[in-house]
Amino acid sequence: MAEATTATGRNTATSGLPAACAPVEGAAPRVSVPTVLEVLRRLDSGPRGLTEVQAEERLARLGGNAAPDRREASWPRLFVRSLRDPFTAVLGCLGLVSAAVLAWGTASVILLLVVVSCALRASGEHRADRSTAALRELVATTATVVRRPDGEAAATTREVPVAELVPGDVIRLGPGDLVPADVRLLRASGLTVHQSALTGESAPVARSADDLPRATGGDGGPPARAEPGAGEFEQPQYCFQGSSVASGSATAVVTATGAHTRFAAAHDRTAGRPESSAFDRSVNGISWILIRFMLVTPPLVLMANAALRGRGLETLPFAVAVAVGLTPEMLPVLVTLCLARGASLLARTHGVIVKRLPALHDAGAVDVLCLDKTGTLTQDRPVTDRALGPDGRDDPEVLHWAAVNAWWTLQLADLPEPDALDEAILDAAEEDELMAYDGVAAVPFAPDRRLATVVVRTPGRLGRHTLVVKGDVEAVLERCALGDDERERLRGLAARQADGGVRVLAVATAERSARGRDYLPADARGLGFRGLITLRDALAPTAAAALGVLTDRGVSVKVLTGDHPGTAVRVCLDLGIPVGEDAVLTADRVDTLSDTELGEAAVRTTVFARCTPDHKARITQALRTAGHTVGFLGDGVNDAPALRAADVGIAPREAADVAREAADVVLAEKDLTAIAHTVAAGRHAGGNIATYLRVTLSSNLGNVLAMLSAGLLLPFLPMLPAQVLMQNLLFDAAQLTFAHDRPHPAVLHRPTTLDPRDLLRFITGFGVLNAVADLATFGVLALAVHGPGNGDDETVFHSGWFTENLLTQALVMVLLRAGRRTAEPRRPGPVTRAALALAAIGLALPPSPLGPVLGLTALPAVYYLLLVAVLALYASALLAARARSGRRGDNGP
User: Fold this and answer.
1) Mean pLDDT of the chain, nearest integer
2) Cα separation of 623 and 604, whole Å?
3) Which of 164, 336, 532, 728 is 20 to 30 A off residue 98, Cα-Cα?
4) Which residues pair with 157 in a beta bridge?
5) Residue 507's pLDDT band (boundaries 50, 70, 90)?
6) Which of residues 487, 506, 538 is at a domain's end?
7) Does 724 share its domain with 840?
8) Which residue, 694, 713, 717, 712, is CA-closest to 886?
9) pTM for the full model?
10) Active site residue ranges
11) Which residues constitute the domain of residue 759?
12) What is the pLDDT of residues 450-493, one digit of tens each?
């Protein structure tokens, strides 16, 4: 293969080298990398390795080369952690208050709810932790080390446990070996390494021990900052713990072991507690609303009854019951059920593991998804785009000669593995035509030549050989017999093609008299220019469809890549992602922006190019600061900071160990379709949670307002504490069915958020409406039921209001479900069935044998007739208010 050209006409993919290792156009000058001699001096070592005494002394002083150990949290620890949930804390406070006023029944119910909620959450997260247990096979168990018995003895080679390696040890690496520590190469022959565990790159990268011209300095390790878009893992003189040798061999000196390796450092960066997520922030805001209501309600009840009715502390149990009635006690249980059910469905149907249950809600709230290009939008391989003649028109002969070069390079040269660009050219060519030639010789790619040459003989043409050259545009043009003007024109042609985000190769041929097989690189001269081959990244087969789904659901995609901006823009346009003129930022531009400026720019930017891991984390944080809920998809060690910075970190199952540990969601494959399914599941769960909160809090607030008003007007308590708690328990039990509800499809088309201010506005409006309906019932009872001859007025009032409250709450469950149409499906769903059961209990409980136990009694028939009228008016008002709220946009989940 040969080098390709970027959008600026410079080299980005080099034959024999993975594209990630090619020179980067516009990159800053390389920073200092110490020479082999400097590294050995700083480590007090030499090519013959350490003595046994030196190794033992360093092992005792620095410790063993132990792999990072990350123990998963135990079930009891997860249970205790669940107690810190704000809603659970609210319930705990209510339980303590209930116990203080000797309301043991209430305290017991609340304690049971707390235990059930925490147990469900801990069990779900414990299963997820076990499903994503760390893979420790990334670290080798033994290493081949060169040591000396003493300073005068000859060096010997032997196997030692990896844990006994120390800085300064000289080790040998061969094909299939796992790199046991961070090392600096001393000698290397055809060395390529797989470092997908560190960077996410699937292709092996070339490594060389050459001391490239650099400024002096260094401390025996790689520089803190390499080329833009490359990072510390791309320095060719270094190999790191967690990578493996794909081909070739090497001798290297150990520069870092144990906790000082880059692998361990990445673990340390993920060890800190992450910032609060979107779900945490929403829960905290709603919790403080409830806490304020609960702190205000009991004192108001006590003071009002003391001032107007002369009642004292005997109303304290009623005041506590009112506060309990305001609180959605089932919320922790319902939240956990909704999220656990969604997570379980994702795991069964799509192989997606949700490690942290609240992350599923955050996935539903995601409105920005940050991801890399390679492996997500594109496959890890190029494909041929066009074959152009010197005039810029399509010319299949150019592809033919490029394929001849690729085929016979593969057949005659001793390459460690097939080149990706050559494979792409061969896939596009007719293989039968290639077999018509006889291969004579091949001069494979070398970095100094930047091209590959093959010599073939065409049957029937005795005494003639054809040289076919393919490689970097500039390198090929220098060897062609062209005038200066023509050469400049062809450079411009290549640059224009590369500006479209493709890689460009040049192809040339020459006829020579036949001779032996002793062809040299210098023979490639006086060539005839044939044309250009352009190659682009192969698009992921499901990416376009998945991006369409995400766009329809209000999720914008940001591409954070280390590639050239033209390449990334080309991929986006091929997949239908619109990219405006001001929607591209490069890393050097990002470095000039303050955090505030970056937040503003990040919102309108689609492509961030030349990004290092630090850039990715900073951009992710800037988007969160700008008010977005951000998901980040990454799979390398370098992605760990950005995974932690996002609201939802997403990693594929084959990602680096550190990336999986930092992620909240683990995918079976690196596929956008799985992310679309995760977003849908999160929105279903979030929609049900939001509906529960709206229905419960508006109904509870209405009941509390009505009770406070009635308590000031009546000579007795409007409802006994036991009746308040029974009503509340029945309502909460019915609303557990929201965990099994299926929201309207419209819920999928926008992020599900729990905005405390929107929620407060909603529950206040509908709570007042509910209170009006309750007070209307109070009027019905006063005018039609109370009075002489109606028996115990207090008991009748309690019974009438108890029944009305359950019926109105059943109406609210059906009519205020987020995004539902007025007409239900032909077959009632779980919420409708639960509402009907709640209404039936409200009608049947007072006249039942259990009624007197709760202080309830049968009601006269006239009450039910009047109640039907009240409920009809209430339902009409509820529908009108919901329609108005929907027009304002407040009725969404």
Assistant:
1) 77
2) 10
3) 336
4) 146
5) very high
6) 538
7) yes
8) 694
9) 0.71
10) 372
11) 279-351+683-888
12) 888 898 888 777 788 889 999 989 989 998 998 889 999 999 99
